[in-house]
Amino acid sequence: MSSVTVAMLYMLFALGGVAVYLALPGGQRSARIAGLIFGLSAIAGFAVLAAGHLFGEDVSAVYFCILAAVAIFGAGKVITHPKPVYSALYFVLVVLAVAFLMVMQEAEFLGIALIIVYAGAILVTYVFVIMLAQQSGASAVDGRAREPLLAVLVGFVTMAAVVSQAGHLPGNSTAMVDAPDAALARLAVADGIPAVDEPGEADDEPLGGSNTAQVGFLLFSQYVVALEIAGLLLLLALIGAVALVMKRVPRDVPVAPAPPLGEIGKEVPPF
Amino acid sequence: MIVEWVQGQAQLVFSCLLALVVVGVMLLGVAYSILAERWIAAWVQDRRGPNRAGFFRLFGSFHFWGLGQPIADGGKFFLKEDIIPDNVDKPLFILGPATIFIVALVGFAVIPWGGQVQIGDALLNVQVANPDIGLLYVLGVGSLGVYGVVLGGYASNNKYSFFGGIRATAQMLSYEIPMGLAILVVVLATGQLRLEEIVLSQMGDGDVWNVVRHPLACFLLVVTLFAETSRTPFDMPEAEQELVGGFHTEYSSMKFALFFLAEYAHMITGSAFLMVLFFGGWHIPFVPGLQPGDTAWWAMLLKMLVMAGKIALMMVFYIWVRWTLPRLRFDQLMRLAWKGLVPLGLGLIAFALGMLYIGKPQAWVWTLVGNVVILATMLGITALIPSRVTGRQYDMPELPPRTSAPASIGGP
Amino acid sequence: MDSLTPYVILGAILFALGMVGFLSRRNLIVMFLSTEVMFQGVIVNLVAFGRFHQNLQGQAFAVFLLVIAAVEAGLALGLVVLLYRRRNTLDAEAWSNMCG
């Protein structure tokens, strides 16, 4: 990356940081709108930068730009939206975008597993708990953020630090673009990583060439012990969750008496 | 130029055409499923169903047996006032029915309709898409289906809708597990994730439909499909006697119609899935024209007709069950899932793995014997372990005398 | 698209956004949602690196990550329900008297 690109990237990070700071709950409505506008323009800047950087490589670069923009927008909304249900739903958007990115990278099994496990099970559980715990919409908890300035500073400095190193990645070299396979093999050898699984080799796997079969074969041969441990972990979590919730706990704070039936609709503000 | 491009992309063009046809036929099928439901309900209850609305009065007072009813219903839904109540969460209120309908439709992309067809030089798949992960795709799309119900229930800002949403979440999460187990049995038996390959694996020499190989898994899938589409006896999310209308209480006009249509679209998708997994898809043994080698265009049409006929039979079964069986109570529903279906599914998985280990996953005589043994074992265990009868009057604690207004439902 | 850099940048952005959310939000459920966003960033990176080295280790690790996420969600949500029952609020600061 040229130094101009890097400088622009850092400026976009700064813009994004300001956007998240403004959009975090607790500010005025106008500040939130300004945050949204700043955030959108930062994402658009990224998209333009990435499109200029990747233009001419492949059609998939366009897909990458769109999906990445959706994922970042969704993530921003997850952490800034004042209503937890919306946070959860925007997270579904992030999961879908990331799943399509996985499919784009020929990791179909992982993409669909992300959708089934995250969007289909974990997020439904989140929504379930949110519905159980917050029946009347946003509460005072979500009205303000905790140390927003420091959090944004820490987060975005981390981001910039990682990205400044990403500039030195070997994938960035022009050799990659010209002859990806040869460059990859050379780089892999240079890194001391054994260059396993040449593209043609995958079809010789005993279980056929599909991505699911390959990942399954790897999991059940090389990582079989880890897989068993993972299963055990799931069982432990199941037992633990049941044991946690089955227990009757004393209430520290008395529950406010419920309003008479006729006034429930008036007492509860609209969402 | 365009002609050459089309010839190069024959499968793509064919898939697009097929998608159009399938979506059109399916929307029509959904409309007429509703009419069939009303007819069969009337037949079960010994009364007359809708038989008035015809298309036009061509032959005096001949009404075409009420076949115009779905169109009249659709027109009525469009013309009704679309009310969005003040207290609802408006974006989610609109997103709910949209989500549930989209999810019900996109599941259709991977259903194989009729093997392969020869058009010109090209041998084309009669399937919109044939990904490596067809079966997982159906599972993934199906697992998103719960969002429509949950959003509708949550956004309505109504206690009854809310209960409907809560019930739907718990029910669908619970029944997805036995459904996954039943599907896994098929995957273990056939070793395939492509739906087309699963269909083909049921029609080779000496092969039988999967329902003969694994009848218990088929039963498991049927039960969970009823629960996933929240049809009676599992229609707890909308139980109208308890919850008014459940998650769709606050909806009106076309938004309500979307919920209503999505239920039937889900049923059709589920039926197609069941037919592909267990009943040989478009295949009927020994009938010429319905074998994998037949690739003429008329064979394709015949296969699609057979598939549609099988789906229609399954729909009739759905409707028949709805007007025959009463609704389960919610604790019974949960007990059935966790203490009945999940252990059964685990037993079936263990058995299918054993068959795979001895190298005969498709030997249908042995799998059938194994299924009988598993069923007998489960029934024996059920008979030996005494289970407590719950929900009777004498089980309940004495109610305190009612003095003030009842406390509101749904505290933490 | 074989270049690695865009994926790493996307992963870093998702990770950092999740971190900001975890540090600054007060609602326990949203805090856990933010950690899930961080997981997404890590998954993007794992798969991108796996593809870069043309092997499947990255995808295998991501599967384990899914397991961890499921375990975490189950336990964390159980805990949240428990804490909510005690104090009737989801505010993380309601429990600040527990430190030291």
- Cα distance, first to last residue of chain C? 51 Å
Helix content bin of chain C:
over 70%
As a whole number of angstroms, the C-alpha radius of gyration of chain A is 24 Å
- Supply Rg of chain C: 17 Å
Number of domains of chain A: 2
Q: How much beta of chain C, percentage-wise?
A: under 5%
The average pLDDT of chain C is: 84
Shape of chain C: elongated
Largest interface: A-C, 108 and 75 residues
Through-space gap between termini of chain A: 47 Å
Task: Give me the count of strands of chain A.
Answer: 0
Order of helices and strands of chain C: HHH
Mean pLDDT of chain A: 74
* Unreliable sequence segments of chain C: none
CATH topology of the largest domain in chain A: Four Helix Bundle (Hemerythrin (Met), subunit A)
- Which architecture of the largest domain in chain A does the CATH hierarchy give at level 2? Up-down Bundle
Protein structure class of chain C = mainly alpha
Outline the structure in words.
The complex is a heterotrimer of chains A (271), B (412) and C (100). With 271 residues, chain A is an all-alpha fold. Chain A has helices at 3-23, 29-54, 60-80, 84-104, 108-133, 148-166, 174-178, 180-190, 211-221, 224-246, 264-267. Helix content of chain A is 69%, strand content 0%. Residues 172-180, 189-207 and 263-271 of chain A have low confidence and may be disordered. Helix content of chain B is 61%, strand content 2%. Chain B is built from 15 helices and two strands. Chain B has helices spanning 2-8, 10-44, 69-79, 90-106, 134-144, 146-155, 159-190, 195-200, 210-213, 215-228, 240-243, 253-278, 297-322, 330-357, 364-384, and strands at residues 116-119, 122-125. A two-stranded antiparallel ribbon of chain B has the order 1-2. Chain C is an all-alpha fold and 100 residues long. Chain C is 76% helix and 0% strand. The longest helix of chain C is centred in the C-terminal third of the chain and has 31 residues, at 57-87. Chain C is elongated and about 50 Å long. At the A-C interface, helix 2, helix 3, helix 4, helix 5 and helix 6 of A face helix 1, helix 2 and helix 3 of C.
